[in-house]
Amino acid sequence: MEMNEAVVVEGLTKRYGALTALDGMSFCVGRGELFGLIGPDGAGKTTLFRLLTTLIDADGGRAAVDGFDIRKDYRLIRKRVGYMPGRFSLYPDLSVEENLAFFAALFGVSISDNYELIAPIYRQIEPFRTRRAGKLSGGMKQKLALCCALIHRPSVLFLDEPTTGVDAVSRGEFWEMLGQLKNRGISMLVSTPYMDEATRCDRVALCNEGRLLGVDTPQGIVSRFDAPLYALEGENMYGLLLETRKMPGVVACYPFGESHHLVGCEGFDPHRLVGELERMGFCGVSVRAVEPGIEDVFIKWMSHE
Amino acid sequence: MSNDPIISVRELSKCFGDFIAVDRISFDVARGEIFGFLGANGAGKTTAMRMLCGLSYPSSGSGTVAGFDVMREGERIKRRIGYMSQRFSLYDDLTVMENIRLYAGIYGLTRRQMLRRAVTVLDRLQFRSEADTLVGGLPLGWKQKLAFSVAMLHQPEVVFLDEPTGGVDPVTRRQFWELIYEAVADGTTVFITTHYMDEAEYCSRVSIMVDGQIRALGVPADLKRQFAVQTMDEVFRTLARGAKRSE
Amino acid sequence: MRKSFGSFVRKETLHILRDGRTMMIVLLMPVVQMILFGFAISNEVNNIDVGVVVPHPTESVRQAIERISSNPYFTFKGYLSADRIDQALRQGEVDAVVVFADDYDRQMDAFSRGEGGEKAIQIVIDASDTNTASAGAVYLKSVLLEGHAGVVSPETHLLYNPQMKSAYSFVPGIMGMIFMLICAIMTSVSIVREKETGTMEVLLVSPVRPLWIVSAKMIPYFTLSCLNLLSILLLARFVLEVPMSGNLISIVGVSMLYLILALAFGLFISTVAQRQATALLISAMLLLFPIIMLSGMAFPVENMPGILQVVSCVVPTRWYIDAVRKLMIEGLPFVAVLKEFFILVGMTLMLLTVALRKFNDKLE
């Protein structure tokens, strides 16, 4: 059954001295799945990627990529995975074409062998193929890096924070490209610190400080939010935040975009809260029930830790 | 405190050769505002921010920050502002306290002032037990909260924050924003760039830069109404999608 | 896999070619060093201005003066009266004065018969630079006494390098230093740069073996160093006029072995350093000082205190310089440097083994 999974992770642990970067993580990525690893800096995402791409050795647990054990069969794994590290990892002094040709040769293929796979992405940067990679814009660098990671047609693609530091528009474009690749049958493990990108994935794992908070489809994760959630608005938002937190029945209250999100305990009465706040002198207070998002779940799970 | 805008910019431009990085931008920031300075990668945000911080000279146009001319009084501006960026803020190989002492020294605080403010900062962050910890060993979110507090140590009139929350977890990110709210409640003006569009909603006003120009400027709620969309994310996408250049 | 190796070498070559400034430094550094050491900072006998005091001009005095003025290392500045010697030296008109005796002819006859004649000539020389002065005096004397060679002179005979040309002895030293520095710094920095930028991660997560990565990196730098070897040898032969009396193939062979050793050193450094700055610092600390101080390049090994002589044995450059000196300057055959050769072979193998073992195909 393991052969049917692109990635299997069981109790994987990695320690750096006193710091446990990865603490017994377990999950599976199915074939052809676009799997998101969502968590902030320090969640252990990069460590997990380095373990799965066989760059470092685990201290405990086991994992398999494309059916091969990361410890025993690491040379076989290296033939069939693609890896795009978090940092820009191309040669800035080589041209677009030279970079691509080099990475193709690294895996013993030529550009033409798998051109049709990268074509939709590569065509966007092909007009600049003689330009040095260091002179490309951020978005184009990313596209080139993706082409280079794909040129040997990997069965599993690892993308470590490909959208970090990238503006919202380029991020959207990048996820659309990943969607297209998924349709070509490539399994992908993508990490991101942006919670709003979770909805782009088939399934996501929320992680924090080396541990998994939960794994599910984005809808599944959201449905696990089991408390009444409200959006609170009014004038003097900061004062509202501080006072609401002290109110009875309020489990948590935190800024959320234009409003504050308020997690109530069972049987929470929003009208009473509005009345209380208005009595304290707050104007224009409104409270309405809202659907939770991934970020609400993350915050809730994090505070339960 | 006067009612003059703390930052006032008219037709400010910066060219590098033929390339116009910042193209005649004009705006005011009132005292006590949280001003969100948004834009796609390469839109010219960093260049504009450098000019406002007295780090580079404008090619043309005029502007004042905290009452000083960005063209002639860069050095005086630097003393009145706080600055924090995601890339560089604190020294990893110094302890929390050593970093505080260093910045207090840079801004000419007396020893007594330094100690008093250090205690305030450490208490507010609940960091007292970590005073002798190396900054390099702290989680990113803690570092960023500390970096912000250090940038506020000399009680600047305006603080510039360049993507201060990138990669920080959602809970700490919100704690960071509460620090910002608190600073604003004390009368500081905050000028901030971010890639998180939900954070754009926390700002009193935002400007959105595209291709070196400011294409939208206003209160988030008004901008959303103007573009007939639900979130700032959509406002941003609508504007940035038409961008001709990137980074 | 041959294709991927070829493209690896191509890529490394492109890196070198694209960084034109560094390449120029690497190619020009040896030339500049050779010229600097060869001419400018030389303490050799060169351009010595000579004045003469001649009380009784005779045919043999004229011949002696002719020998001085026709020698390329001396410039004949003219005749002086005996009371102006001091003044002329002080004012820098001349560097040396040759005073011929009143009875020069008779003294020389006596000298030729081995019956004294020590007072035939007196050499007064500006000794503010003692090295040049003593070397100049010795050489001046040998030039003056030419044609009286049948006599056993009490002076030391200077073999192989009668003009005491420092360029001769410096050439092997420069070669030893330059090859080590260029190869070690360039390889270590280029490997560490890939670690620093993150490309090494991508290279390791590919089927290519570390040995390939490393050898592909070494080939272009080896080629570049061979160009340096060529330029140094050409400069030495045609500009500094080092005789190159030895077997050229042996010189090149030993040098290439030394190049590989230096590349292995660079590889070793790259396994220790994580940042380019560290790699540079280690190269400088680990290589530059020991090479200059202990290799015999600047100070003869024989003159070092015993403990330093022992330490100098682990400096590969010492053996290389020894070997090249023997081959290039003394003109000895290859068998004369077998000891040095095998020591270098041993060191190369050891370094390569250690470096390759340390150069993991994992990140840690």
Give the structure's gist in a few sentences.
Chain A has 305 residues and is α/β, with parallel strands linked by helices.
What does this structure look like?
The complex is a heterotrimer of chains A (305), B (247) and C (364). Chain A is 34% helix and 28% strand. By secondary structure, chain A is α/β, with parallel strands linked by helices. The radius of gyration of chain A is 23 Å and the shape is elongated. Chain B is α/β, with parallel strands linked by helices and 247 residues long. In chain B, 36% of the residues lie in helices and 25% in strands. Chain B is built from nine helices and ten strands. Chain B has helices at residues 45-52, 74-80, 96-106, 111-124, 140-151, 170-185, 197-201, 220-227, 232-240, and strands at residues 7-16, 19-29, 34-39, 60-65, 68-69, 81-85, 158-162, 189-193, 205-210, 213-218. The mean pLDDT of chain B is 89. By secondary structure, chain C is of the alpha/beta class. Chain C has a four-stranded mixed beta sheet with strand order 2-1-3-4, with helices on one face. In chain C, α1 crosses α9, α7 packs antiparallel against α11 (276-294) and α13 (316-329) runs antiparallel to α14 (338-358). Chains in contact: A-B, A-C.
Produce the secondary structure layout:
The complex is a heterotrimer of chains A (305), B (247) and C (364).
Chain A: E1 5-16, E2 19-30, E3 34-38, H1 45-52, E4 60-65, E5 68-69, H2 74-80, E6 81-84, H3 96-106, H4 115-125, H5 138-150, E7 156-159, H6 168-183, E8 187-192, E9 203-208, E10 211-216, H7 218-223, E11 229-233, H8 237-246, E12 250-256, E13 259-264, H9 270-279, E14 286-289, H10 294-304
Parallel strand pairs in A: 3-8, 3-9, 6-7, 7-8
Antiparallel strand pairs in A: 1-2, 1-4, 4-5, 9-10, 11-13, 11-14, 12-13
Chain B: E1 7-16, E2 19-29, E3 34-39, H1 45-52, E4 60-65, E5 68-69, H2 74-80, E6 81-85, H3 96-106, H4 111-124, H5 140-151, E7 158-162, H6 170-185, E8 189-193, H7 197-201, E9 205-210, E10 213-218, H8 220-227, H9 232-240
Parallel strand pairs in B: 3-8, 3-9, 6-7, 7-8
Antiparallel strand pairs in B: 1-2, 1-4, 4-5, 9-10
Helix pairs in contact in B: 3-4, 5-6, 8-9
Chain C: H1 2-18, H2 20-40, E1 48-53, H3 59-70, E2 74-79, H4 85-90, E3 96-100, H5 104-112, E4 121-125, H6 130-144, H7 166-197, H8 199-204, H9 210-239, H10 248-272, H11 276-294, H12 306-312, H13 316-329, H14 338-358
Parallel strand pairs in C: 1-2, 1-3
Antiparallel strand pairs in C: 3-4
Helix pairs in contact in C: 1-9, 2-7, 2-9, 7-9, 7-10, 7-11, 7-13, 9-10, 10-13, 10-14, 13-14
